[in-house]
Amino acid sequence: MSITYLEAIREAQAKLLRDDERVFIYGQDVGGTFGGAFKATKGLAKEFPGRVLNAPISEDAIVGTAIGAAMQGMRPIVEMQFADFSSIALNQILNNAGTHYWRTNVSVPITVRLPSGGTKGSGPFHSQSMESLYAHYPELIVMTPATVEDAYTMLIEAVAIDDPVVYCEHKYLYYHLKADNLPSESLPTGRARIAREGRDLTIVTYSAMLHEALAVAEQLVNEGFEIEVVDLRSVKPLDTNTVLASVARTGRLLCVGESFPWGGATAEIIARVTAEGFHLLDAAPQRLNAKDTPIPYHPNLWSAHRPNANKIARKARALLRE
Amino acid sequence: MLETATRRKKSTRSNAAPHERFLEAFRWMLLTRTLEEKLVSLYRGGLITGGVYIGKGQEAVSVACGLFLQKGDIFAPLIRDQAGRSAFGEPLLDVTRTYLGSRQGPMRGRDGNIHRGRPRDNQLAMISHLGAMVSVTVGALMAKRFRGEKNFVGLSCIGEGGMQTGAFHEGMNIAAVEQVPLVVVATNNHYAYSTPNDREFACRDLVDRAMGYGFEGYTIDGTDLTNCLDVIGGAVKRARAGRPPQLVVASILRLSGHGEHDDASYVTDEIKREPFARDCVKVAEQTIVDLNLADAETLAEWRRDAAAQVDQAISTAQKEAAPEAAEEDWCAISTRDLVDFLE
Question: What is the C-alpha to C-alpha distance for residues A174 and A148, in angstroms, rounded to an integer?
Fold first, then answer.
């Protein structure tokens, strides 16, 4: 058996619909025979009649509707067609879902799935990584699964969590990433995973960049370096302890994320490690993000805009030389 | 005495004789006017922090919004809906505790003034971003339908200002697509803060939008309590019976500033002479006198009762402790083991 990252997301939703009658899926093109722009809900409308519903192109109202249903005890899953379009729903996510428990003591258990990140030819409006923006706000859990196994278990966990969850699934991983089986157990949300052990440098990353970082780690073995790679799994909560423990072993830190460079997850990690583990560092911590421009359409430009294995390797070598 | 502490049994309400219903509504309006006048004086005396936002002139529309809802119905009031909130069952103490910052209020000092609610009792807590609560009401109704509940309705309030937001348009459209039993009551008070209607919208009549959304639309004179009760009551009944979503557009003049910090100097003398500028409380009282529905002593007794209830609610809240930063848990999420940043 071989299952892709995308199929894992579909299977997780099928399981959720099967096991929990409070679950329904709401979003553009998710229902009918179509099953979503990326087919993440393919066949589910037929298998679960009345529970996988097409919505109009109304991101604000889709999330607002999910919030109202969640307050009444449902467990809605919203599919944004692309993470980029969740900007239309920011008000509902940040100001309504994101303040509700604090204000009223009534939590809003919605899961908002964001097909995230760049792919060739997708351009400024179908490529964004918005985890850093969402993580900035209180009351949101922000998941960034990098593996087929995590895509599956974390989505199931997202729906079980009583608070609003932004689940960032990376489109680049949809078809390419495969696993033999779906797991029945996993680390809990909020715990990072050591994806590869090493002693010379810690690369902290998440989502699609995990695989670029692992490729670099493999490559630098030939140059005599052992790189430790930490997969954050969720950027909020952020597992500072696992990161600090890794930096304690290696003395060097490089943070890699696909979102824009100003602020964000990579800056947050460096701020925390610098504040809490300054004495552990043998060199100034570094970070690598996308360029500070909109995301370009043409593959020649796009491949230079995003962080990739070559850029990570260059940063890593410079850091290892210090 | 009107019972404000708990939601009343409302099975008889929609069957009440018209004049009984009118008098009940009037008493909620009187209570609201009394309460809000008191809140204004507390604000002017520096005893309320933040703002005070009152519904003066909107009580007739608002009370009709709350009065026909039953246990299990969803109510999404907005800024100027004290009368509706009270008629729906909000205890006066919720109001005074929130305004006066008591830690025992439903918002515990975390939010203030009209940004309050009890979602577990189906009274949604509005956010300031107008239009956002329409789709939230739709979702609450969908949840009830998913669960197989019957005979429920939702009512979401908006103003003509909020009607110009994208969120409102999306919410109206999605309500009609989902065919939920929703009533949207839109009160045109002729100013969005200081901006008059001619800079807010250019359509002939806001109710014409009902057809475009797939709603049934009605207009009312928001200064006429009988008209408000008849039309909003009818809309609630139709939505409950499975008719398409209902839009009711009421016309009034806001007889106050946007908030009490606002002297409303931009309201023209000309508009103050319009028929919709009448004070609905005075109009309703005149009706009571004209039709001899209650005598002067009864009216005076109702006023005394309202004042006593308000005084009680205020003095109780004033005696209660304010929230303390050192005792606040500063935790935004309910899943405590997922807290990221606990200081």
Answer: 9
